[in-house]
Amino acid sequence: MDVPALLHDYLIKWVIEPVADQFLGIFDLNGRFGLVFLFSAYSVAYGLFWFRKYRAQDPPGETSADGCAHHL
């Protein structure tokens, strides 16, 4: 075999296949980084973002529409 063919086989076996398997494992439902885990983590982060954004609209010490003073 010539050098390019050996290099190609080496790259496929030791670089491309492991990287492709790792990438496809992200979407595996059995792993920690499964699609369900990514969706739930994103949902929690998105909810916290909107919760903090909503609370930032009320300046500290002032009352909101419900008449209660909100403090951090």
Give an overview in words.
The structure is a single chain. The chain is elongated and about 75 Å long. The protein folds into two domains: 1-32, no CATH class; 34-72, no CATH class. The protein contains two helices and no strands. The model has no long low-confidence stretch (mean pLDDT 80). The longest helix is centred in the first third of the chain and has 23 residues, at 3-25. It has 72 residues and is mainly α. The N and C termini lie far apart (70 Å).
| Number of helices, where a helix is a run of at least 4 consecutive DSSP H or I residues | 2
Q: What does the radius of gyration come to?
A: 25 Å
Largest sheet: none
How many domain modules?
2
- Helix fraction, binned, reads 55-70%
Strand content: under 5%
Structure classification = mainly alpha
| Uncertain stretches | none
Considering the chains and any ligands shown, give keywords for the structure.
72 residues, 2 helices, elongated
SSE topology:
Elements lengths: L2 H23 L9 H22 L16
In short:
This protein has 72 residues and is mainly alpha-helical. The chain contains two helices and no strands.
